[in-house]
Amino acid sequence: MLNLLAISGSLRAASTNSALVAALARNAPAGCRVTVYDGLGRLPIFNPDDEDERTPREATELIDAVTSADGIIVSCPEYAHGVPGGLKNALDWLVSRDAAVAKPAMLAHASPRSLFARAALAEIMRTMSFALYQGGLEIALLGKKPPEVEVILAEPGNVLAMRDALTAFADFIGSH
Ligand SMILES: Cc1cc2nc3c(=O)[nH]c(=O)nc-3n(C[C@H](O)[C@H](O)[C@H](O)COP(=O)(O)O)c2cc1C
Question: Coiled coil: which residue ranges (predicted)?
Answer without folding.
Answer: none
